[in-house]
Design brief:
Blueprint lengths: L1 H22 L19 E13 L16 E5 L9 H6 L12 E5 L1 E3 L2 E3 L3 E7 L30
Antiparallel strand pairs: 1-2, 1-6, 2-3, 4-5
């Protein structure tokens, strides 16, 4: 359970990272901006992965229910689907530069008008304290209909 909670937390950070990378436009005249060392301050690691596949699956929100979700775009693990487990992801192939990175990264599909936009690649990064001061993060079960009993906080600060 702790591993799944950590996976959910990391997936949330990745969604933000991929979505902001995909949607971000460089400032005018800065199309070839070079990444500086200062840009990586606080980053625990960076990974680059190519597009893998797309599917209407979400192994966190709808585990074991293929086709139950809206369309997602996947990078990284090539085998990610609604029935993915830690074991299946570890055994799956990857589109990431590091062959050891068999993690699954996905975001909702991006459309420009009615045209599906497929990414060529994504840069994934984990920042230990990526939320702005005062920002709070919520996690839980998407299908829950009642509040849960508070638990001690776990995860990154």
């Amino acid at each position: 359970m702790r591993a799944r909670a950590l996976f959910i937390a990391l997936a949330g950070l990745v969604v933000v990272g991929i979505a902001s990378t995909a949607l971000a436009k460089p400032p005018a005249g800065d199309a070839t901006r070079v990444l500086r060392r200062a840009d990586l301050r606080g980053v625990n690691f960076v990974e680059n992965c190519r597009f893998s596949h797309q599917a209407p699956d979400d192994p966190i929100v709808f585990p074991g229910k293929p086709g139950a979700s809206h369309l997602h775009t996947f990078v990284g693990n090539r085998t990610t689907d609604s029935s993915s487990t830690f074991g299946s992801l570890r055994a799956g192939g990857t589109t990431c530069r590091r062959a050891e990175d068999t993690a699954a990264y996905w975001v909702p599909a991006l459309y420009q008008g009615t045209s599906l936009v497929l990414p060529q690649a994504a840069t994934i990064y984990y920042r230990r304290a990526s939320l702005a001061p005062g920002t709070r993060s919520r996690t839980g079960c998407a299908s829950s209909r009642a509040p849960r009993r508070p638990r001690p906080r776990r995860g990154w600060a």
